[in-house]
Amino acid sequence: MKPTPVRRILWVIAILVLLGLLMAGLARAQPVHIRDDRGREVSLPRPPQRIVSLLPSLTESVCELEQCHRLVGVDRYSNWPEAVIAKLPKVGGGLDPSIEAVVALKPDVVLMSVSSRASDRLEALGLTVVQLEPKTHADVRRVLGTVSDLLGVPRAQGSDRLWRVIDAGVLAAAQSLPPKVKNVRVYFEVSRGPYAAGEASFIGESLTRLGVRNVVPASLGPFPRLNPEFVVRANPDIIMIGNRSMQAMVPYPGWASMRAIRENRLCVFGPGDSDVVVRPGPRMAEAARIMARCLVEKAPPESPAAPSPSGGRTQWPGKASSTGALASAVPVAAAAHVGNSGK
Predict the structure, then answer these.
(1) pLDDT at 306
(2) Nearest-5° angle of CA 25, CA 28, CA 29?
(3) Residues 280, 284, 286, 292: is their CA dihedral positive or negative?
(4) Range with lowest mean pLDDT among 100-109, 144-153, 314-323
(5) Cis omega (within 30 of 0) on the bond before 81?
(6) Any idea what DSSP says for residue 73?
(7) pTM above 0.90, yes or no
(8) Domains and their CATH numbers in the chain
(9) How much is the average pLDDT of 277-287?
(10) 341 and 247 in contact (C-beta within 8 Å)?
(11) Would you say 81 and 28 are in contact if contact means Cβ atoms under 8 Å apart?
(12) Between 20 and 30 A from 111 (CA), which of 11, 164, 234, 306?
């Protein structure tokens, strides 16, 4: 008796499901060979099933690659997706985690930033460490690929798919903006110091894609520490500030003279939005939408053409004030140490 068309379809579906399971099983059994951001080759006999992540952006990347179930512990700042991460053990800060707590979780691999001081101690105790630290859009795409390879997730279904979603989301945010936003001059402060997001950072690149101009040039590096006078002289049209800790916004000397402060063109991102905006990971499209909303709300009616000196939820605070006169120091910048909570 010949099988009916319905039966044939069911047979085809069953075969496809079986092939998918076989391929997934083979992927899990395949050895892993990757190179981390220290330039070190990392080899494992199979993709890790027990992972400790000590960097929020890497935690989010693992979860967006649909492998949250492999996480057995995270740093204190990892908090998304909340429904999953809230249940996991916290092992301290990403830069200085509790070594004992990490070891006790018996991870197959520990994901952490290049700047973490704990890698040598963890490796001395026999743990496998992978250090990754994205700072630009290209870095984010590369790191997603590395994590996808580490997890044994084919890039076509993993990092490449995820990057297309991110890229399309940033583009859509840019296309949603009205003409008045184009060429608006923006200063973005990632943390007190002030530490700024320069043109060369992933935040700066997102701002560029949104069609605005960053007053902190690429020549100063991704996250330079600035003299507050630099920002006063740059006199940006809009100021964006990441304020995850919700600490009091103590004004810098001279800031009251800036047009952005006088006209209340200031966006202070609270804990929820700040986490999204300052983390170089899979939520960059959402970050672009948050910044786009700020630009729409705060852009001046006409964008001035003055050049830069070098060539919870979002809060819309009231008019800020400042104490102290303008400093006479020349603007300076130094290599930044951006807080681990922001990554």
Answers:
(1) 45
(2) 90
(3) positive
(4) 314-323
(5) yes
(6) E
(7) no
(8) 30-157 (3.40.50.1980), 178-342 (3.40.50.1980)
(9) 97
(10) no
(11) no
(12) 164
Q: Mapping DSSP to helix (H, G, I), strand (E, B) and coil, where does residue 295 land?
A: helix
Are the beta carbons of 255 and 320 closer than 8 angstroms? yes
Name, in order, each residue with C-beta under 8 angstroms of 190's C-beta and a sequence gap of 6 or more.
Answer: 196, 197, 203, 223, 242, 278, 336, 338, 339, 342
Question: Rounded to an integer, what distance in angstroms lies between the CA atom of residue 320 and that of residue 249?
Answer: 9
Q: Which are the contacts of 49, defined by CB distance < 8 A and separation ≥ 6?
A: 70, 108
User: What tens digit of pLDDT does each residue of 107-133 get?
Assistant: 999 999 999 989 999 999 999 999 999
DSSP H helices in the chain: 5-29, 56-64, 82-85, 99-104, 119-124, 137-151, 159-175, 202-209, 228-234, 259-262, 271-277, 284-298
The pLDDT of residue 341? 53
Task: Using the structure block, give the residue that is written with the tokens 């798919």.
Answer: 161
d(Cα 44, Cα 27) in Å, to the nearest integer? 13
Question: What is the rounded distance in angstroms from the CA atom of residue 52 to the CA atom of residue 42?
Answer: 16
Whole-angstrom Cα distance, residue 294 to residue 288?
10
Q: Hunting for tokens 């609270």 — which residue is that?
A: 270
Q: Tens digit of pLDDT for each residue in 61-110?
A: 999 999 999 999 999 999 999 999 999 999 999 999 999 999 999 999 99
Average the pLDDT over each of 165-179, 213-227, 288-302, 328-342 and give the range with the smallest value: 328-342
- The H or E element containing residue 51 is strand 51-53
| Rounded-to-integer distance, Cα 136 and Cα 104, Å | 34
Is the pLDDT score of 340 beyond 70?
no
